[in-house]
Amino acid sequence: MNQYDIMELLTEEILSKFESHPIRSQDGKGLDAEVLVKYFNPCGRGTWLVTEAERELRKLIEQAWYNADAAYSKYRSAGVALASAEVAFAYEQQKAESGRSTIFDFNDAKTRMEKAESELVQAKYEFVFRSKILDFYRGKPLKL
Predict the structure, then answer these.
(1) Do 93 and 86 touch, CB atoms closer than 8 A?
(2) For the chain, how long is the longest CA-to-CA vector?
(3) Single pTM value for the model
C-alpha cells in the first residue's frame, strides 16, 4: 500500500461531511458523537469509525510522511554533493602539489568539502528524527 491508496479512502462525499463537522465540533459528546465514516476490514473483524479528530490526526501523519520523505531526499542529495566536493578537493590538491593552484583556491575547495560533510551529517540526523516521528505514529516505541 502506498500513500495514494490511503487517499482513495476519502471520497469527495466523505470530505464534504468533514467540512460540515469542523474540528472539535463533537467534543464532549462521547459515544453520542456522529460517526462520519465507518471502514471495515473485509478479511477480519475490525472496524474503524472516523470522527473529525481522526481527520486532524491523519493530516499530522501525512505531514510527518512528507517531512520524512523530504528529509530522505535531502540526505541523498547531500551525499551526492559531498562526493562532488571530494572530487573537486582532490583535483585542487593535485593542482596545489604541482604548484598550479593558489592558497585561496585550495582553501576554498577544502572549505566546500567540509561544509558538504557537515550538511550530510545534518541531513542524516534530520532523516533519523523524521523517521522516529513516523515510528511514533505507527505505535513503535521510541529508541535510538
Answers:
(1) no
(2) 82
(3) 0.61
